[in-house]
Write a structure and sequence with these properties.
Number of helices: 0
Distance between the termini: 37 Å
Number of strands: 11
Order of helices and strands: EEEEEEEEEEE
Strand content: over 45%
């Protein structure tokens, strides 16, 4: 499995970014996916089921982040709006064991290298 994130940047507070995660080497449409942030602790931010019908958001990003996926393009996304300085960190995507996501970090067994998001004026 291979996961490659992109879209990280330096953005001012209140700005928006969309991160992408390109997946290859496995049948993307069969697995739940998630976005994590390390800043410096690792935090599960959002997750989505294999067919996209169920989503989860951590309280810290609820209302500001939107996770989505395009199974035809084997790509996971997260739209991040109204960013704040505390959203700064290394963002990476991860593949879950199965079709439904879990909140347990150990249930994610394939990880990308991450893309840096810095929110600063």
């Amino acid at each position: 499995e291979r996961l490659v994130e992109s879209g990280g940047a330096l953005v001012q507070p209140g700005g928006s970014l969309r991160l992408s995660c390109a997946a290859s080497g496995f049948t993307f449409s069969l697995y739940a996916m998630a976005w994590f942030r390390r800043a410096p602790e690792r935090e599960l931010l959002a997750a989505i089921s294999a067919n996209g019908d169920k989503t989860y958001y951590a309280d810290s990003v609820q209302g500001g982040f939107t996770i989505s996926r395009d199974n035809g393009l084997n790509t996971l996304y997260v739209q991040m709006d109204n960013l704040e300085e505390q959203d700064t960190g290394l963002y990476f995507c991860a593949q879950s064991w199965g079709a439904m996501y879990s909140l347990a970090h150990y249930s994610y067994d394939s990880w990308g290298q991450g893309t840096q998001v810095t929110v600063s004026s």
